[in-house]
Write a structure and sequence with these properties.
By secondary structure, this protein is α+β, with helices and mostly antiparallel strands. The chain has helices spanning 9-25, 54-64, 146-149, 186-189, 206-210, 356-366, 388-399, 418-437, 463-469, and strands at 35-39, 45-49, 76-80, 85-91, 134-135, 161-164, 175-182, 194-197, 200-201, 219-225, 238-244, 253-265, 272-281, 291-294, 298-301, 307-314, 316-323, 330-336, 341-348, 368-371, 406-411, 447-450, 471-476. A hairpin with a 4-residue loop joins strand 3 (76-80) and strand 4 (85-91). Helix 6 crosses helix 7. The protein is globular, with a radius of gyration of 23 Å.
Length: 478
């Protein structure tokens, strides 16, 4: 008989301590660590220092220094060759954050939960990171939602969610993450969530989460497909999932009821729907070869008439994204119900110039920007002449922001040998840094690295996806 694998005490403690350590390092000295926050009649928020509560301090201390956490069967489920997948792991109980589900409610069938109250007490028997209010680590003093304005640090520090299981002995062909998310409201509060697995940022997951608007608060199942280039993260039998916004001062509180991982799902989902639509440009002309994806679970290319069809899309909160090189991506978000047929129309605008204002806006909001205007000949590492305008904009941005440190990251598609692609992307990133150094800029603080094909933003199965993966990324690291 196979044995269940649980988190070791040291592993759990290290996760919690890491989370608290990050928040402390990023703290703003202008605000006390413990404040009472009041929402005023005009919508503003005021904060005043309060005296530390010994009982609260003791509770926080206990929550950080957990001696041992052994999950009960309702907090951890693990099955090999089960009904749903070759490997199925779920952490967190399926109980709608402790509020429970109405009779007959199936959380895996895509229906919204009822609006519930807040805040609630953290239960030490819940799986670490689930069934608790978390507030983005960059929050300091901005206007905030009800969760944030009625709770205190360190009770609301973001906590990573760890999953352990036996090392898979099978070839991984498909991975789906099912996340029961609650009260994510990036469009309302201006947050920009980052999504990490084992410290690797999965940029293609982030737009799905950042389009959620779970005002209420209310919960919803969100299902996400993992790209093949990231399957290796799941091959060790241990993953850690982190969701946070360390960049924006946004008062966005959020919660996670459970996370389930399916490796090689055995059947198409019982609860699914169909999405059809058409993609136009701004002049109402149909666009062909646009990559359209629904949460990374189903994707298709538009035909010559701009139409697409996505069949048997798993239900839940869906973000349909349309991407084509030289155009700004467009998306539509909606709740897909069982056996529903949804029709969408998406308009792609010609991409704006990658000028300094564009760079500044993207970097300030997301902490990174993908640049497609820095071009190279095939197999070459010297920027083409037409790249100079974008390179000049990057140079201007660095002149006007002398105190920042950036990474210049080269990315390729999956064509060719992985080692060759990594070396080529490294040389291209170094070439960009070298170009900047010739513009009377001190580039010594900046880092040039190449990731080859390892960090895609789209599937490499199509030419449209490959074009999106060939890029130079600029990321702020300090």
């Amino acid at each position: 008989m196979r044995k269940f694998l649980f988190l070791t005490p040291i592993f759990v403690c290290s996760l919690l301590l890491f989370s608290c350590k990050n928040d402390k390092e990023n703290s703003n000295d202008e605000l006390p660590e413990e404040v009472t926050i009041t929402e005023n009649s005009d919508g503003s928020v005021s904060a005043e220092e309060i005296e530390p509560d010994p009982e609260i301090d003791e509770a926080v201390e206990d929550s950080i220094h957990i001696k041992e956490f052994i999950p009960s069967p309702d907090q951890y489920f693990y099955a090999l060759e089960g009904e749903k997948a070759a490997v199925q792991v779920r952490v967190g109980d399926v109980d709608n954050l402790g509020f429970g589900f109405e009779e007959g409610f199936d959380p895996f069938c895509g229906k919204n939960t009822k609006v519930h109250s807040y805040p609630w007490e953290v239960d030490s028997t819940d799986y670490p990171g689930t069934d608790r209010i978390m507030v983005v680590s960059a929050y300091r003093r901005a206007r905030s939602d009800g969760y944030t304005s009625r709770t205190l640090r360190a009770h609301t520090d973001p906590v990573a969610i760890a999953m352990k299981y036996e090392v898979p002995s099978i070839e991984i062909q498909k991975i789906v993450l099912q996340l029961m998310l609650d009260d994510f409201q990036a469009p309302v509060w201006g947050s920009s969530f980052q999504f990490y697995i084992n410290e690797k940022r999965l940029i293609y997951v982030e737009p799905i989460i950042n389009n959620l608007n779970q005002t209420g608060p209310t919960g919803k199942l969100v299902q996400v497909g993992i790209l093949p280039e990231d399957f290796h993260l799941f091959e060790t039998g241990e993953i850690t999932i982190s969701i946070d916004d360390p960049v924006n001062d946004a008062g966005d509180g959020f919660a996670i009821d459970f996370i389930q991982m399916l490796i090689n799902p055995k059947q198409e989902y019982v609860c699914h729907g169909t999405i059809t639509g058409v993609v136009y440009d701004e002049q109402n002309n149909p666009l062909t070869n646009v990559l359209v994806s629904a949460n990374g679970l189903k994707d298709a290319l538009t035909g010559s008439d701009g139409t697409f069809e996505l069949l048997e899309v798993p239900v839940g909160m869906i973000s349909v994204f349309a991407n084509k090189k030289d155009y700004q991506p467009a998306s539509e978000n909606f709740e897909l119900k069982r056996e529903e047929k949804k029709e969408v129309t998406l308009i792609l605008k010609q991409k704006e110039a990658e000028d300094e204002s564009y760079l500044s806006e993207e970097l300030n909001e997301k902490g990174f920007v993908n640049l497609y205007g820095i071009l190279f000949d095939s197999g070459k590492d010297i920027p083409k002449a037409e790249s100079e305008s974008v390179l000049n904009e990057l140079a201007n941005y660095l002149r006007n922001n002398e105190n920042i440190q950036i990474e210049i990251i080269g990315h390729t598609d999956s064509e060719g040998d992985d080692g060759y692609n990594r070396d080529l992307s490294q040389r291209r990133a170094a070439s960009v840094k070298n170009w900047l150094s010739k513009q009377d800029l001190d580039t010594s603080p900046h880092i040039a690295i190449g990731k080859g094909e390892s960090s895609p933003v789209a599937s490499n199965d199509t030419e449209a996806g490959k074009a999106l993966n060939r890029r130079v990324e600029v990321r702020i690291i300090r």
